[in-house]
Amino acid sequence: MLTSPKVFNYPIPGNPTGGILHIYGEAAAAQDVILYCGGFPDGLEPISNLAERLATTRDGQARGCYFGVTCFPGFDNKTFNEQKFTGYKKSGFTFDEVTCCVRDAADLLFKEHAKSVSSSTDECKTAFTLMTHDWGVVIGHLFINRAIEERRFTQHKPDRLVMLDVLLLPHPKSNYKEMLRGKEIQKPTARDNLLSLSYRIAFAMSFAVLQFSEAVGLIVLAVLTTIVFSILKLNPLQDVDKLLGRTKDLKHFLYMTYPYYHMFKEVLKGSETVFDVATLPLDLKETPVLYMYGAKKNVMFHDNRSVALLEREEKEGLSESRVVRLEESGHWMYCQEPEVCENEIRKFLKGGGGGGEASSGDTQSRL
Q1: Model confidence over 178-214: pLDDT tens digits?
Q2: Within the chain, where are the H helices?
Q3: Does residue 322 contact residue 310 with C-beta atoms inside 8 Å?
Q4: Residue spans of the chain under pLDDT 50
Q5: Coil, helix or strand for 41?
Q6: Is the link from the previous residue into 13 a cis peptide, with omega within 30 of 0?
Q7: CB of 218 closer than 8 Å to CB of 46
Q8: Transmembrane stretches, by residue range (predicted)?
Q9: Reported CATH class of domain 6-187+274-366
């Protein structure tokens, strides 16, 4: 049975207590601190099982982590229904704003950790791992690269990244083209592009209409998603994710589509978008990346060049970065195979473990 996390609030644009942070585990010296940010359409609950697993000390293993969970502003169903647009901007939040919110969540997480271990005589070594899923991965990319390039936030600069089911481009200064020369990188097919774009356009258009009328926005959402998912059969996900992707609250679901709206606003800007910064870190030895993804989807949400780059890092022993493909999972692999995800993350935090594929019947990674 899951234990109740400690609940804290932090400021977001327009609301001094609108950000929510759940903390699992007890603070201790020389333990890993993990901050998780999910994506669409997740609040704080889906990751709770894995969070508690990682916060628990296992026999013969490293002590439990100090695990914080936050989400995009307005994505927590309970607080959204309590405050709606009085507490959350009707236009949603930009990726820059969400990144700042997650930084504030990190500040709060470390502040609470320091309160509990300040009286300890042991040296407090708090290695920081940023874990993200779905749209949260965009925030993770922005967080780490800006922390490095701006030479700020160094106290809470992530030491490692765990990215789940979404992975963006390699860093433009990484010379990845030369590194991957001779490797056959699979390019997205026309259907892959159609699967990726169709639902994003539907969600973005629905949110745009919401700015003028909630009732009409709900109608547009219903019509467009019916066309995309039911008539054209362009669902990027498979049945394994069916229940996890559903919501009983359509009004809240509609509001949570704001990242798609802001994505297209960024793309239409042309030059100097957040996606120019939202890439893998330049130095993967300094900031290693564990990327895990589920194979049971109709389209993958990662850039194949980045996957190949991380696989090269592991194969040639260049860094602790690696890729794990979960054959029996879909988009929410941490709900479908939490034990596998826990084992892979624990190995990554220790700085070891093989990569490749993993399944519930074989919790050891294999090449």
Answers
A1: 888 888 899 999 999 999 999 999 999 999 999 999 9
A2: 48-55, 77-83, 95-117, 135-149, 176-179, 190-210, 214-225, 250-255, 258-269, 304-315, 333-336, 338-350
A3: yes
A4: 121-123, 353-355, 359-367
A5: coil
A6: no
A7: no
A8: 216-234
A9: alpha beta
